[in-house]
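Reopening this ticket.

The earlier resolution said the output was attached, but the attachment link was broken on my side. Pasting everything inline this time so it's all in one place.
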Amino acid sequence: MTISTKHEEILQETAALVENVTDWKTTLSAVCAVLRKNIPYYNWVGYYFANFETQTLHLTAFDGPPVEHQVIPFGKGICGQVAISNENFVVPDVNAQDNYLACSVHVKSEIVIPLFMEGKNIGQIDIDSNTIDPFTPADEQLLETINAQVATIIPTDYLN
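Inline output:
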């Protein structure tokens, strides 16, 4: 699959953020903002990180309206399912999904891509869209590449 010029520009911008990191959480918020600003159907972008002891995901950085779900148990909702499956999860229509945690009445679809560090799923990027079925394999590729960039700035204590 060929990456679009727009996606290439986004990757260059996020790479520059990652290369010049001073605070990793601030950088994650900036990455979320870059994605939300540049892709019209990315209406909310956030990173959740795993707490393996409590088997929960914790919202660490986001761009978009505040959400109710700051902590999500493994297995609950799309994010919780990705914490267990370690696989990308694209939901074209959230209304057709049984195990969906509603964040907003406006959300129509969702994509969640796991964030791996040294082969371990330590978190994920979660994107909500107010458009039905906008996500493509190119979105998955873009987000996987961004997660690989981001993994280089995450403290190693997230591997525990």
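Reporter confirms the inline version is readable. The radius of gyration is 14 Å. The first strand starts at residue 44 and ends at 51.
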